[in-house]
Amino acid sequence: MDAEVVDLRAVRADTPAALDRVFLDSAGSSLPPTPVLEAQIAHLRREAEVGGYLAAGERNDDLEAGYGVLAELLGASPDEIAFSDSATRSWLSAFDAVPLADGDRVLITEVEYAGNAVPLLRRAEETGAVIETVPSDAHGQVDVAALRELLDERVKLVSLVHVPTNGGLVNPVAEVAAAAHEVGALVLLDACQSIGQLPVRLHDLGVDLLSGTGRKWLRGPRGTGVLAVRREVLHRLRPRLVDLHSGEWTSPTTYGLRDDARVFELWECSLAAKLGLIEAARYALRVGVDTIAAEVGDRAKRLRAGLAALPGVDVRDLGEQQCGLVTFTVDGVAAADVKARLAVEGVTVTTSAVGSTRIDMARRGLDEVVRASPHYFVSPEQVDQAVDAVSRSGR
Ligand SMILES: *Cc1c(COP(=O)(O)O)cnc(C)c1O
Question: How far is the centre of ligand 1, averaged over its atoms, from the C-alpha of 292 (Å)?
């Protein structure tokens, strides 16, 4: 595949469903390309033929190489990568390992995700740590000047969402990380909506911990996730869910723990799913991360422009830099009804409700938005079809 422009014919040939429907839900759960599907099925078959242990043994080298593949994708080294079964699991195991005590402060942003907010609040309740929200700037992204004002040495963690679940906003990660590090705070980046659509590189961004999912923009299997941990911060973390893979029982009363990111993994997992995720990362690298970002950006821009021109439709995306999540509302029509009417026309979108990003949605007075997230395998013509379908959804 070309390094600059995606070979639309080739990627659509690997994504047969993209031909039949206008699939605009890669922010929810994307269409995996054929090689990803085949990697999983082949392994499941092999497990049925020889048993799970022998089947795993046969793929040992590939599984080991997978750490290098994800490391390449995420601008990290293989010992900084851990696999998991979801972005949430990755985020939780990282968050749980950050020491927090009474009076410590944790900063979040206005687009914090519900799946992080619930454990944050629970942990605050348990430890006496305080959660505070950094305001957004006029563009809707985290206000880095306001963050600097809030930072002091009591801030132990900054929880930053790269791209929120409810819109095209891209937060300025490197600036946040640099500011947080001046007071010694750790930075945990929720990159769930960015990996697979944007370049996300651990060391370039300067974050300490980074969580991501397989099923969204990376086009991997459901039930997969990844955690990247900057080697330099591992000694400051205390992983709480550890087993005989993250550690070793060295005598009846002693144990040791691994000294790499795999200390965050548990022994048991779906190897078919893991192989599928590795294949998805390889596929993204073959298409090219910069190419993907450019193509997704192009489709999203086209979609936003088409929607903005429709009477009664409001595009709701914030941010100076915008990416592949396109959110909108249609006057007088509930988001769920827009979704249902589009489904009838073969256009797949989803909705995002206030409960997922409560601070941001409440601030903007929004209950629900329609979310359309075109990947590179969606043709420009299909984007126009979707706009046409939305123009009919208000009637
Ligand atoms: C989807 C999402 C998650 C959770 O991902 P899972 O794979 O469901 O664990 C976390 N953060 C954001 C911003 C998301 O959109």
Answer: 20
